[in-house]
Amino acid sequence: MRVAVMGQGYVGITAATGLAVDGHQVIGVEQDGCRLAVLAAGRVPVYEPGLEELFSRAVDECGLVFRGSLLDVEGRLDAVVIAVGSPPGPGGAADLRQVENALAQVASLSPVPELIVTKTSIPPGTSAAWLARPGLAPLMRDRYVHNPEFLNQGTAIQDWREPDRVVAGLWNRELVPAVRELFAGCMSPWVVTSPTGAEMIKYMSNAYLATRISFANEMARACEAVGAQVDDVIEGMSHDTRIGRLFWRPGIGYGDSCLPKDVDALLRCADAHGFAMPLVEATRRVNQEQRGELVRRVCEAVSGVRRPRVAVLGLAYEPHSDDLRAAPSRDVIPELLSAGLEVRVWDPLIGRSAAQAQGVVDDQVHWQESFVAAVRGAHVTVVLTEYPELVNADWTALVPLLEQPRAVVDAKNCLVPEKIAVAGGRYRGFGRVSAEAEFVHRGDSPAVPAGRPGAGPARSLP
Ligand SMILES: NC(=O)c1ccc[n+]([C@@H]2O[C@H](COP(=O)([O-])OP(=O)(O)OC[C@H]3O[C@@H](n4cnc5c(N)ncnc54)[C@H](O)[C@@H]3O)[C@@H](O)[C@H]2O)c1
Asked: Is the separation of the CB atoms in 168 and 192 below 8 Å?
């Protein structure tokens, strides 16, 4: 098929690359001149493991090309895939201007392509509202498919090839063979529903995933209050196949580019449709509180220290993505600065100028070229991103580089508490209580059980 993919962000580049490698003739369309120039030079403007190689193959061997506007694409198209953004607008509602502009451009083509696919996340009811617009009605009724994207940054290529499911929301069932032909390279179960059903699948999936994380954080608070190890509790619960192992580690809370904005947009959608989602409201509130809780822990650790210094290790939410759009560092760093701490920052993936350009750090922050340099002479270290070099670092050697009280605040529960304790550091994770605390709460002897020196167990979490 001859396909244009509108929007060349994380989703659009992955889709354009995957479709080209699968044998379609693909034109990637990107309106941002800087991004377009990078793509036209044969490079990928975002960091995504493995994408650069596949992208080169798509360009060099499969004929993937780029244009600055859909209106510049010459010749007839069989399909247009819309993968433009739906960023948060005022009050948290999804800003649909990019996707509505894209649809208007598609509607102005002559001839209009047979298949118009939106991958962009759009709140429930959006497609139905477009169906009601006289200018869009025939296009929506006959040619439109909502195919929400579920990829995760860091595993985008694998998620493209083998998503857990492909969702096709359409009103015209005769489109199903064409959609299957377009996504023939995706080896997954299919769910065919209405566009509104497809929108609900996307937003409810993200709301549920967000709720699991907030539930884990609420559970971590309870563990600290009663003196239980959250790692043990999660391990014990995860063996229940109805609960499972994934997506519920306590810590700083969710902060990728999708969950925060989709949860907010769902809540605004609920307001607009006049129904309540108290669970999702609570999910959002618990998540927001985690940021403040982290800052509170840092401040508590350095109380009494004159001119306290904190080393923030990692700016991104995920260790394999340079996406900073909703990263917790955006909230945490300004709060640490306004609490009067000197803030040093290290991140191996994101350069200082990129972090500054995206408004995550400013001149008040001391940028460091290595985590060792950041830690040396700081009073407290915050591990904000689960970078492998931090997880695997020799913390028994790092901790002595800190000044007293040598505190390590682990925002991802990804370090081994014993290693910090053995080196004389004070570890604070989320829901990870010391072995002594477990015994005090049980009323037993405070002696540490054999094989469990210092703080509690730290096994790899799901
Ligand atoms: N990033 C993810 O991990 C992810 C995962 C699943 C779903 N999604 C959803 O997919 C959508 C896209 O996400 P993203 O992260 O790739 O977005 P993005 O903001 O990184 O990229 C969107 C791109 O579209 C371009 N664009 C906008 N209007 C255009 C037009 N008319 N013509 C050509 N280009 C245009 C923008 O310049 C931008 O480069 C969003 O709705 C998002 O919620 C994202």
From this structure: yes
The tokens of 233 are what?
């509790």
List Cα–Cα distances, 16 to 11, 32, 113, in angstroms: 9, 16, 17
pLDDT tens readout for residues 77-133: 999 999 999 999 989 999 999 999 999 999 999 999 999 999 999 999 999 999 999
Task: Give the residue from 251, 250, 386 showing the smallest Cα distance to 313.
Answer: 386
* Phi-psi label, residue 125: left if phi above 0, alpha if psi -120 to 50, beta otherwise: left
Q: How remote is the CA of residue 252 from the centroid of ligand 1, in Å?
A: 25
Residues acting as catalytic residues: 258
Give the pLDDT confidence score for residue 457 in this predicted structure: 41
CA-nearest residue for atom 21, ligand 1, is 9
Ligand 1 surroundings by CB, under 6 angstroms: 6-12, 29-32, 35, 83-86, 98, 101-102, 105, 119-121, 149-151, 153, 257-258
> Average pLDDT of 39-62?
96
Which residues line the annotated binding site?
35, 202, 247-251, 255, 261, 325
Give yes or no for a contact between 122 and 140, defined as CB atoms under 8 angstroms apart.
Answer: no
Structure tokens at 212: 């699991």
Q: Whose CA is nearest to atom 35 of ligand 1?
A: 7
The alpha carbon of 352 and the centre of ligand 1 are apart by a number of angstroms equal to 24
CA–centroid distance, residue 94 to ligand 1 (Å): 13
Distance CA 266, CA 259 (A): 10
Domains of the chain with bracketed CATH = 2-193 (3.40.50.720), 226-442 (3.40.50.720)
Mutate to test the pocket of ligand 1, among 8, 46, 84 (most ligand atoms within 8 A of CB): 84
**Structure tokens given for 298:** 């840092």
